[in-house]
Amino acid sequence: MAFRKKAWLSGVGMTVAAALALTGCGSNDSNGGNASSTTNNAAGGNAASASKENVTLTYTIWDQLQQPAMEAIGKEFTAENPNIKVKVEVIPWNDYWTKMSAAAPAGTLPDVFWMHSGQFVKYASGKFLEPITDKVQAGEINMDDYAANLGSIYQLDGQNYAIPKDFDTIGLAYNKELFDQAGVPYPDDTWDYAKLAEAAKQLSQPDKGIYGFAAKMDTQGGYWNDMLANGGSIISADGTKSGYDDPASIEALQARYQMILDKASPSHQQMTDTDSTEMFKSGKIAMIFEGDWRTTDIDGSDIIKGKWNWAPLPKGKAKRGDIINGLGNVMSASGKHKDEAWQFLKFLGSKRAAEITAQMGAAIPAFKDTQAAWVQSKPQLNLQVFIDQAADATPYPAGTKAYPVWFPKESEIMAQAWGGKISIEEGAKQVAAMMNQAIADNK
Amino acid sequence: MNSRSRYVWAYIMIAPTLLGTVLFWSWPAFYSIYLSFLKSENFGMVNHWVGLANYEKLFKDKEFWKNLGNTLYYMVLFVPLTLVFSTFFAVLLNAKIRGLSAYRVIFFLPQVTMPAAAAMVWVVLFARDYGFINYLLGTHVAWISDTRFAMFALVIVGVWGAIGLNMLLILAGLQGIPKALYEAASIDGAVRFRKFRYITLPLLTPTLFFTTIVLMIGATQVFDSIYLLIGKTNVALPEVRSLVYAYYQNSFVYYDQNYGAAIVDMLLVINLILTGLQFAFQKKWVTYD
């Protein structure tokens, strides 16, 4: 029920956001221009020692599971900089961008906060984020310290805005107990999509409410990987055209949906009633695609603890599809304590912060050569698959102004297809048309 | 005191409420009308005047008409059901029975329950495979994700949540009816139903008039149950999406505040018309003594 839990938290958040939005409307004139003038931060390097004023920074994140690790980093930072305290604030993902979009024009963005590649362009082009280019050039921070060229996600018009925090890829979680009962060998890196579909059928016992696979209607943790593996695309490389109407994409979507028709997966309605990962956690699903960030959550279920593991995603006709995404830490352009915020931001990008993130199993840190500690944080699970798949994974298809517009509409259209109101092909074509329109409108 | 200083005092007394109303209700309402004539960029920091373009888009938008239909359909189901049930329970609780206050508290409880918390319970109750409602009825219906039933699920939750307060309002109305009338009717030999029909109901009409208006306005603003119960990946969403939900999506999810503003401004017009009609027709059925 995690999804629903988030949903009701959102109810509260919405009210706050609405109130913020209303007050924000009145005072939107003062904070527009000042962001572009990069503040003189010559003292940035040793600002902490220069000013001894007591300051509390707000660090806003969306994942409650990572809160302990982020607080631990904040504590260690305060130990080094006794005059700067860090308050970690969690806003659940469902409300995070609603609240940020109200806070941005009101000039009340948190001092430091998590940024997602999908939302980045909107905030950076609106001058709400403090550029850190001069610090990178001054050598205060080295973008080569971070794996998989993650720093480049948060560049716009030659400016750097974020320090890479972590990266994530998608894996295949499987329930060992259900595999043992059905006498099916565990998934490994030789599996392809045909094998996945075949095993899913063998593992399913619909009369007992047990299904081989959760063919959920999901993008990053779902059919985007299928589409890429089958040789299709989500959006063209230059970001100007949707890939949903590519025949290879449609074929991949249909193959996933076929698993519902074959009763090898719960129906869309069932997965609307109960989140599919929750079904996996209660031992009703044998296999599911999920992001590494759900590891702690899944392993926290008493029903499945010790009875599950990760495998790589299956291979498709073209390749092994996998989406890689990386979060970044950014700072507000209108913060009151930018020098202190920069000190903290720099610390968040340090090797030490990455080690804390890894050891506490919060996320795969972006800092090079610290990932091993994350893999070791849960030795009973094959976490190495996420690191291995990062090498040839496809970046999350964001980085345009159009993305925040088409992304929420995508799920609305695909819900009609997954719910059986329109065909998969029709749904994919509608999404393509909608995406192309959004791209044209938001050049 | 001369009349002038009396006015001054009167204004001072209403100032807190008046200020609150202007600041938090009137100003945003007018601002949303202004917004609907703009095309905003960059979270509303850059605005262009586009005149009626948003309304043009609105009237051509099939989804808008569908959402309007959904909203009115919800209202038509929700308002009469709430009125009937609230009146029924109010009449029952107006009697002298043991544990009266306990019953009143029980019926009022939904009103003080956080809607979000209640919605979570309803999601479980409505579930297809293990839900209590299907168990009770012996059915196997996906209440909240089947396009045929989702609206009824919303109405059930809505009525359940609205009975408490309206029952209380009607109860207050009932207690304002002089006992002497009932005594006189008893002497004339009237039985229970006739008393209800010819004394209670006519004298209750001012209260019913008020509750109907409030309920109708409330019904056109249905949002939280759709947001919490149905959700954005639900295939039934287009069948139940209300105008306010569409406003939320456009303003806060698609970042198009201007189109969102046009939607709520239409809602404002609709509510003005509905309330105007109510007042026009009140002579026909409302009895003021």
Automatic annotation (TrEMBL), chain B:
Coiled-coil segments on the chain, per record: none
Location relative to the cell: Cell membrane
Highest taxon listed in the record's lineage: Bacteria
Keywords, comma-separated and alphabetical: Cell membrane, Membrane, Transmembrane, Transmembrane helix, Transport
Record's keyword annotation contains Zinc: no
Transmembrane spans: 7-27, 72-93, 105-127, 149-177, 198-219, 259-281
Ranges of residues in domain ABC transmembrane type-1: 68-278
CDD domains: TM_PBP2
InterPro entries: ABC_transporter_permease (IPR051393), MetI-like (IPR000515), MetI-like_sf (IPR035906)
Topology in membrane: Multi-pass membrane protein
Main location: membrane
Xref: Gene3D superfamilies: MetI-like
Family per similarity comment: Belongs to the binding-protein-dependent transport system permease family.
Protein name listed in UniProt: ABC transporter permease subunit
